[in-house]
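Comment thread on ticket #2218

A.B. wrote:
> Attaching the input chain for the structure job we discussed in standup.
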Amino acid sequence: MQTVAIVSLVLFTLIIAAAALGLTRVILHLRSVVKTLDALDGGVQVIVAKTATVGSTVDSVNASLAPVRNFAESI
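C.D. wrote:
> Ran it. Output below, let me know if you need it in another format.
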């Protein structure tokens, strides 16, 4: 009976150690993903800032070209 108990404890310890190792690897991968997403979010914010003026610029160009459009429609 003593041998069976020791073997069982060793097996349980190995199973728990393998699960702990797997969970540790998952945690490390998730930290890497978080770092990548943080960098990506920073890049997206830069793009948003640089393209914020596009809407007002397009409206300004359309307003400037209104006489040309009116002339082209009259032909």
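A.B. wrote:
> Thanks. Noting for the ticket: The mean pLDDT is 91.
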